[in-house]
Structures are given as C-alpha cells and as structure tokens.
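Hi again,

Forgot to attach this to my earlier email, sorry! This is the prediction with adenosine monophosphate bound. I've pasted everything inline since the attachment limit keeps bouncing my files.
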Amino acid sequence: MTALVVGGGGREHALVWKLAQSPRVDRILCAPGNAGTAALAENVPVKTTDLDGIVDLARREKVGLVVVGPDDPLAAGLVDRLQAAGIRAFGPSASAARFEASKSFAKDFMRRHGIPTAAAEKFTDFESARAYARGQNYPLVIKADGLALGKGVTIAEDFPAAERALSEALVEKIFGDAGNTVVIEEFLSGRECSVHALVDGHSWLMFPDARDHKRALDGDRGPNTGGMGTLSPSGRVDDALRARIEKEILAPFVRGLKEDGIDFRGMLFPGLMLTADGPKVLEFNARFGDPETQVLLPRLKSDLVDLLEATIDARLDSVRAEWDPRAACCVVMASGGYPGGYKTGVSVDGLDSCGALVFHAGTRREGDRVVTSGGRVLGVAALGHTAADAIQSAYGAVRRIRFDNAAWRTDIGSPDPA
Ligand code: AMP
Ligand code: GLY
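Structure tokens for the complex follow:
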C-alpha cells in the first residue's frame, strides 16, 4: 500500500523510517517532510494545516493509510475529513483530540473518572482568576486552555508572577483564543515521565516509558523547548509502577471513554509526574511525542502498520507488540539560539558516517547538500545494551556531525540524583 505521513519534524522522519520497514508498505509520501524523509519517501509540499490539500493528495494517490503527526491538524479535524472521504487514517477525531486541545476538557474528564492529576480550577475572567490565585500556595501553575505551541504553561513562583501570567492570557490575549480560558493548578513535585499507549476505545496497548528533557540547557536550566532529547526506558518506572500506571490511569481512561461515549482511537501520550503519592497526569497529548517517537520506534520490533490498523479497527486486544530490550537515547542538535531566534540555511556535514540513526527535523535539501531550516535540526538516536551505552553511542555520533553554531545538551539521559 501507499502510506502518507503528515508532518515534517523528527517524529515524522521516525514514522516514515519505521513504515519503510513494513512489508505491507511499498510507497511512502510525506507532507511536507524534510531532507531526512526525502531519502525514504516522496515529499509533497502540502502544509499540515491545509486539510483540503491533504485529503486531495490522499485521494489522488490512493493512499491506504494516513498517519498524522502534529496536534493542530488533529484538532482541526483532519482525521474526520479523511474518514469521511473513505481514507483510512490514524489519529483521533477532532472531538477526541480535545484531550490535548483543551486542558479544561481533560481536567473535567479526569475529575469525573477518578484519574489522578493536580487539583485545578478554570477561569475565563481575570478578576476572579486573580482573586483565586491570591489565596493559593506557591509555586502555582497557570495554563492556557488551548494549543499554545508548548508555551502556554507558567510556573508562577509568587502571586505577582501569577497575576502577570493571568493578565497575559486573559487580558492581553498573548495566546489568542487558546488563552480565553485558563486552568490554575496545584504545583506537583517529583520526576516526569512520558507514557505512550495506543487506545482504541475498548482497550489499550502501552509502549515502553520514556523521558524527555524539555529545557534548552544542561541541568534543566533555560527556556522550555519542544524537547532536547529523550531516553527510553526512562529509568524511573519499574514493573510495579508500570502496573500502577495501567490500573490508575489507562484503565479509568478507557472506562471513562465508554461512559462518556467518546470515540478515541489513536495514540494517548500522557505526561506524568511521579509524585510521592503515585503517578499523576500533568497533561494528555493525543499523538506521538517528539522526540519520544525517535526512541520508541527504534525499540519496536513489530510492524507499526499492524498496530496502527488494529487501533483504527478497534481490535487492539488481538495484537501484541514486541520490543527490543535495549535502551535508546536521542540527542537533539539544534540551531544556536533556539528556542529564540536562529540562522537557517547552514550546511550540515558528517551525516552519513556518524554511526547512529539520524532523524531529521529542521532540514531541507539544497542541491546535494543538507541545510538547516528550523530550530531543532536533528535527533541523533542510538541503541545500547544499557542506558549508558546508548547515551555514549548517541553522543559519539553527535560529535561526528558538523554545522555552524550547532547546540545540544550534554546531559541527555543522565541518571537522576539519588
Ligand atoms: P504541559 O505542557 O502541561 O506538559 O506542561 C509543561 C511542563 O510544565 C511539564 O512538562 C512540567 O514540567 C510542568 N508542569 C505542568 N504542570 C505542572 C504541575 N501541575 N506541577 C508541576 N509542574 C508542572
Ligand atoms: N516531547 C513532548 C511533546 O511531544 O509534546
């Protein structure tokens, strides 16, 4: 069949790379893709938010399976549109994508179904939000309700900081409509971990756990980014905790879907805080994580097409996934300056001989050169018998890749302090 991957980042390169290994896939399209996907797929210059363009492309090329990477086309209803056109597509409907697209929707659902999460209240009016924030303990967490490019969360250290964040969202509207509602929630302390589970409305299939490093600089300092590197397994989740995550989060999630009549078929990616009281949900994402996918798919031995189709057809209970027991580490190489301003069009060298899996993110081809085109440029991933081996191999490859002003964290996957 012909498969179409929607998106152009590292996650999408990893999806294309994994689909290319399927005996059931003989042709792959990627819209819009990057220089990495171009080696395995045909890039088509259609934007991920151009729903008509994607549906036309899928129809014209008789695509047998569309896999949607990013959150915004899901929230805009791309999967609904594809299904209405008779095209098989992986990802939640717009209505089910609200678990990610609306934090207040997700909170209400968790409260209704007893899923552990931070205590929270939602507000649309600045004065009442401010009055509530005044009486809370600090730090306090302020979140824009909608999709805000990963920038909608503020950890306010004191009341003036909370007041500022509330004013930015509710009065100055810096997030546009995504900040018309804010969620104010309790600050949770602990270690974070990323969980991925395919969910088909009846059952779930949990992937190995992973850990993301969201801050730009070593030691978890600097501004938040889309993710500077990942490790799987996270080293933070043993078998007992994994069983607890299934029992306390995934099982009530699926039960809640049935009780509320929500048809969720896709990838559920909860970000968890592992607190002294057990795992609690920080947020739900309704898609594959980036750069989590770059460490999860190299560990997946089974055919991804079978798993995605079983999710679409609601027969996840009939499939199994086989995993490589080795650890995987992915180090993101970024353009110096990211997540602020940075230069693009910079030549990238050493890719072919670096000795690791390189998932492109912000790259494009220029003649026979690869040049940078975004903030996160590459995800350099390696497997190893231990986490330390995987980390060492990934960094060995990073040192062989060269582009001017490249920036990366040197502590991806480093062990937690005792
Ligand atoms: P989110 O976009 O909701 O995942 O939030 C981004 C980051 O903010 C998370 O990865 C956490 O590091 C942090 N965060 C979000 N909610 C909380 C919370 N209730 N307590 C502590 N940290 C939080
Ligand atoms: N790695 C975090 C995300 O994909 O949202």
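Residues 126 and 166 are 7 Å apart (CA to CA). The pocket of glycine (ligand 2) is lined by residues 212, 227, 285, 289-290, 292 (CB under 6 Å).

That should be everything now.

G.
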